[in-house]
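Q: What residues go here?
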């Protein structure tokens, strides 16, 4: 019988099989920003807005969506202020964190920036239109000058001054109390904060006396910008590989109100139903104490998880494209990797890029081992093979199935190498790898993943340069810095990062100190980008960047920092194109200072990326599957999905979403064609619901005619929980209650209990307001909250309030019921909702089709709970305008000409009303040129100045 050579058999069996690898994949929609890198972020959020003021508002809006005020994510001893890393993976920020994030984004928009430490708070400023402007993304709050248009600066907000808004009375913190664009009312509460935040409390934060530690008269002496950047989102796909991002947690722990697990850390996996350690689903936050690890989620629903599944093809036709490197390994049909010869060590290395940060990994392998003398083991590396840790060793003979759970070994990594080593004692076939499956769990920021809106959505799928990447972002604290270096000299460092200066510095003065890194790639390197965040303070200190392409024999200087002016955190990156034939690059970070202490010069952080040619960058069609839940009229959820085959890039297509409200996103899966069996393209249910693109609305309110007017209630309130109205003034004093229920909320209002109406539905409490004269009224409302954590957006508020009007106090006519059954789509774009995403205290309104005249307004209230009213409202005008958030897809360029899109007015503003509260009014400025690649001050090596 004729015997075939194994290679010939393989060629026959796998003829026509196309193997592919597609790199730098991008899937974005026109419903949310592109967080791939800094340029993509700025482009998607700002490119369609013509003025810098509009661009800054758009950044403010999306930063409100992307993060929450909570224990900030700490990595490498510092708060994580890299916008791309934060917004893709975490979103846990405090005031200082998001201030640095803002500065990083604004810098890439071409503006000067400042970082302020003020009284118990940190805020950023940016410069445009000839002055400084403060955007408090921590509290989701903007303040204007007394003109109602110009965004105020830090020094403005706490000043003692007055204007017509305060009837000319000069008061401390006037801007904070009277001109906040994101408050329930004047001198009231912020709407978009993490808890009860009174405007007067915010005014005290901006007390001019609290600025003195950083402010010298006539000169702002800021020490740093508290920023960082350099990360980019790397999504690469191979055959037999799928990545699914879930917009929710895959662990479902039993939580108390603060989101802290109340059990022992073992919970049920939401997908598999297995008992798992919840630590497998997040990167622990160290906070200020590196020994204290905790999950920062705390019930904000920020954290989602991803599942990256890789089943490499081990067949003779496919295995070379599935591995990173190999030594003395061959493949036999149908898919079996074994040593090329007995007695010779063999190894094969697989690479896993997780796109989002890895939290845990499960390896499942089948290994054949004929005898105890044959060896097989698995090791992992998260520093590109500079060091390895063995995680499994074969025991037993025959077919050995291994399941390896990895947590500490991979938690926090983005790239993991998996090395399988084999040694056959007698014959090469005596040991072999017969199958391998790797499932990587990632942590994702659920608020920033590509989402869909109600109606028509445009999805963009594209790819970048077809190069693979190796990234180093080493920890410089303690002994950790040694894990990535190839060489060092004269280095001292901090056991714990000092935050306001670098973590590594020269040990001896006036001597070169340096760290050297070596990056080895399996194929030719195309380019290397390296740099970081640097601190240079002492006279004659310097920091330099070098690279070498000949194994550190010769070095080329790429950049020098000698300037010592403030701020002392300069971010700079160098990009070097590498000639063909180089698979290794050496990078040197050099420091020299006349001072030995860290205050001379030091390095905060470093990042290096080597892009190299992959083994096979052949394009293969991709499949993109969005899954979402459509909210029905009765608030039930209908699961739907859509799968698109992408046969070329760039590619655009449309997904239409139905339902009665914004959808609840479930998952987004991407893979190359063939990785998922039995795929049905299009909508899973075959139904295209059609629809128009969703456009939000901008709310502008006029004057509240009820302020200072008298009213009467048909029955006394119960004066519980600090409520009560002995003087009969609370409901028209102009002070509006907080957006939260419980706690101190009731002390701002008047309350009644639901049981007073039990069995008496036709006997509501009536509150009759006297406007003093007949007025033209455009809208009627009241601000209310109540006992319990009832969420308006979930339809949990069942209280009924009917509004009646009269000119003579005798004959009343109904204008309708206040709308208490709100949905997400109803919230105006300029309403900043609380961090908990619960609408508990709110101003409910009814807007008649046409303005009506009235002197008396009666509110008939039938509560279904402890019901607290904090303010009555009768507006002389109200305007709801279509407002498109104008997300720019990657292939879109150019800003629209209009300042902002005016549409049909629900109620026109009258000429007598106060200035437009829109931050866009009357602002037209050409955009600034954008600085690229650099940060801080101008240095040799270049920076585009604005």
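A:
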């Amino acid at each position: 019988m004729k015997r075939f050579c194994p290679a010939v058999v393989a060629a026959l069996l796998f003829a026509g099989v196309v193997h592919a690898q597609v790199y730098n994949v991008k899937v974005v929609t026109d419903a949310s920003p592109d967080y791939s890198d800094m340029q993509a972020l700025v482009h998607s959020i700002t490119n369609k807005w013509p003025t810098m003021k509009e661009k800054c508002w758009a950044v403010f809006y999306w930063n409100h969506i992307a993060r929450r005020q909570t224990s900030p994510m700490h990595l490498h001893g510092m708060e994580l202020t890299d916008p791309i890393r934060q917004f893709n993976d975490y979103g846990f920020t405090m005031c200082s964190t998001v201030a640095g994030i803002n500065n990083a984004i604004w810098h890439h928009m071409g503006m000067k920036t400042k970082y302020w430490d003020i009284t118990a708070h940190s805020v950023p400023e940016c410069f445009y239109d000839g002055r400084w402007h403060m955007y408090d993304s921590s509290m989701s709050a903007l303040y204007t000058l007394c003109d109602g248009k110009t965004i105020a600066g830090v020094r403005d907000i706490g000043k003692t001054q007055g204007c017509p808004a305060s009837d000319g009375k000069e008061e401390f913190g006037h801007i904070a109390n009277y001109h906040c664009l994101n408050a329930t009312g004047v001198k009231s509460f912020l709407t978009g904060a993490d808890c009860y935040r009174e405007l007067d409390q915010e005014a005290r934060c901006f007390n001019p006396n609290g600025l003195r530690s950083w402010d010298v008269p006539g000169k702002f002496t800021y020490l740093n910008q508290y920023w960082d950047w350099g990360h980019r989102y790397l999504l690469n796909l191979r055959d037999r590989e799928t990545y699914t991002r879930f917009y929710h947690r895959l662990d479902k722990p039993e939580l108390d109100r603060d989101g802290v697990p109340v059990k022992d850390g073992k919970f049920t996996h939401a997908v598999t139903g297995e008992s798992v350690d919840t630590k497998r689903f997040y990167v622990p936050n160290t906070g200020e104490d590196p020994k204290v690890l905790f999950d920062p989620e705390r019930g904000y629903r920020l954290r989602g998880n991803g599942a990256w599944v890789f089943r490499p093809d081990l067949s003779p036709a496919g295995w070379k494209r599935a591995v990173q490197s190999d030594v003395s390994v061959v493949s036999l049909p149908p898919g079996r990797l074994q040593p090329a010869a007995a007695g010779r060590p063999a190894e094969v290395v697989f690479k896993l890029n997780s796109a989002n940060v890895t939290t845990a990994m499960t390896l499942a392998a089948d290994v054949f081992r004929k005898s105890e003398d044959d060896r097989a083991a698995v090791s992992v590396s998260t520093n590109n093979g500079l060091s390895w840790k063995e995680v499994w060793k074969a025991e037993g003979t025959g077919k050995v199935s291994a399941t390896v759970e990895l947590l500490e070994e991979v938690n926090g990594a983005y790239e993991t190498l998996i090395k399988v080593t084999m040694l056959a004692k007698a014959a090469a076939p005596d040991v072999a790898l017969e199958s391998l499956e790797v499932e990587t769990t990632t942590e994702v920021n659920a608020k920033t993943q590509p989402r869909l809106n109600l109606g028509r959505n445009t999805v963009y799928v594209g790819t970048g340069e077809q190069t693979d990447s190796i990234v180093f972002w080493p920890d410089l604290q303690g002994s950790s810095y040694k894990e990535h270096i190839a060489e060092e000299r004269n280095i001292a460092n901090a056991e714990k990062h000092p935050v306001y200066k670098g973590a590594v510095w020269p040990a001896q003065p006036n001597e070169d100190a340096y760290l050297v890194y070596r990056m080895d790639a399996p194929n030719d390197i195309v380019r290397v980008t390296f740099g970081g965040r640097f601190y240079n303070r002492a006279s004659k200190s310097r920091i330099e960047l070098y690279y070498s392409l000949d194994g550190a024999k010769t070095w080329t200087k790429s950049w020098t920092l000698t300037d010592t002016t403030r701020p002392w955190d300069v971010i700079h990156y160098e990009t070097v194109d590498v000639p063909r034939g180089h698979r290794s690059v050496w990078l040197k970070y050099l420091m020299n200072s006349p001072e030995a202490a860290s205050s001379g010069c030091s390095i905060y952080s470093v990042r290096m990326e080597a892009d190299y040619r992959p083994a096979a960058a052949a394009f293969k069609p991709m499949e993109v599957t969005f899954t979402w839940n459509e909210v029905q009229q009765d608030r039930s959820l209908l699961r739907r999905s859509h799968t698109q085959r992408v046969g070329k890039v760039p590619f655009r297509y449309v997904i239409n979403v139905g339902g009665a409200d914004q959808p609840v996103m479930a998952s987004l899966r991407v893979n190359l064609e063939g990785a998922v069996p039995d795929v049905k393209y299009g909508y899973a249910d075959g139904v295209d619901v059609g629809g128009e693109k969703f456009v939000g609305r901008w709310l502008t309110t006029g004057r509240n005619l009820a302020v200072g007017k008298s009213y009467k209630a048909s029955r006394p309130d119960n004066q519980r929980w600090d409520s009560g109205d002995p003087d009969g003034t609370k409901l028209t004093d102009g002070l509006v209650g907080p957006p939260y229920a419980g706690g101190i909320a009731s002390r701002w209002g008047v309350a009644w209990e639901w049981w007073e109406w039990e069995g008496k539905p036709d006997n509501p409490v009536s509150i009759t307001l006297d406007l003093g004269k007949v007025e033209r009224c455009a809208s009627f409302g009241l601000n209310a909250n109540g006992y319990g954590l009832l969420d308006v957006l979930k339809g949990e508020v069942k209280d009924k309030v009917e509004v009646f009007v009269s000119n003579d106090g005798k004959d009343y006519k109904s204008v309708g019921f206040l709308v208490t059954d709100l949905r997400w789509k109803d919230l105006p774009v300029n309403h900043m909702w609380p961090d908990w995403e619960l609408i508990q205290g709110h101003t409910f309104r009814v807007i008649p089709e046409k303005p009506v005249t009235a002197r008396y307004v009666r509110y008939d209230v039938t509560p279904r709970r402890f019901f607290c009213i904090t303010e009555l409202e009768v507006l002389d005008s109200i305007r709801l305008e279509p407002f498109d958030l104008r997300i720019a897809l990657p292939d879109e360029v150019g800003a629209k000409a209009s300042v902002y899109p005016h549409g049909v007015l629900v109620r026109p503003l009258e000429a007598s009303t106060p200035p437009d509260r829109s931050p866009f009014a009357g602002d037209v400025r050409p955009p600034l040129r954008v600085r690229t690649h650099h940060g801080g001050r101008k240095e040799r090596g270049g920076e585009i100045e604005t």
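A: Context that may help when evaluating the design: The two ends are 79 Å apart (CA to CA). Residues 308-445 form a domain with the Jelly Rolls fold (CATH 2.60.120.1020).
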